[in-house]
Task: inverse folding
């Protein structure tokens, strides 16, 4: 009788393990994305994008570079503003490179409370200057707490890049 019970327990465990897909709930992972993921514009038109974050904890600041094909896309004047995620207490700076990169830095003021949740970090604009498709790629991403340490999940972050089509 003990052997039958032990065998039933082993079979039950095997069935439970076999039915599991082994995946974690990705809806709770830290994520950063370009929104909309894809846009189509005509030459000399300006496209508006947002850099959004999901499921962040203790965020005090962000530094990121966005790359694009500089033969197809340029950076217009006043191309960058902070997003609603920061509320009214954000210090904001930008640095623009001519080699197909837009560098952006956004941080809270010293003494401000770090932010948790999801929302729009930044809004940025790009102008189409020639026909083609340019990937809009997030790289050199830093998300940090008030003490300068990286936020939890940074090294396992889900990244969704964008695409700008110019016709």
Result:
């Amino acid at each position: 009788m003990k052997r039958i019970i032990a065998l039933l327990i082993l079979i039950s465990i095997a069935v439970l393990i076999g039915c599991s897909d082994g995946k974690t709930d990705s809806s709770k992972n830290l994520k950063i994305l370009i929104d909309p993921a894809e846009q189509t514009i005509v030459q000399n038109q300006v496209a508006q994008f947002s850099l959004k974050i999901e499921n962040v904890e203790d965020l005090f600041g962000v530094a990121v570079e966005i790359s694009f094909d500089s033969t197809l896309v340029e950076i217009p004047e006043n191309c960058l503003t902070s997003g609603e995620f920061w509320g009214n207490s954000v210090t904001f700076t930008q640095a623009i490179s001519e080699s197909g990169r837009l560098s952006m830095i956004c941080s809270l003021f010293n003494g401000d409370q770090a932010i948790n949740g999801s929302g729009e970090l930044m809004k940025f604009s790009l102008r189409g200057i020639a026909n083609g498709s340019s990937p809009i790629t997030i790289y050199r991403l830093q998300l940090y707490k008030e003490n300068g340490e990286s936020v939890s999940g940074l090294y396992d972050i889900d990244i969704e890049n964008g695409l700008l089509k110019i016709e």
Q: What stands out?
A: The longest helix spans residues 2-19. Residues 5-10, 14-24 have pLDDT under 50 and may be disordered. The CA atoms of residues 133 and 165 lie 4 Å apart. The helical segments are 2-19.
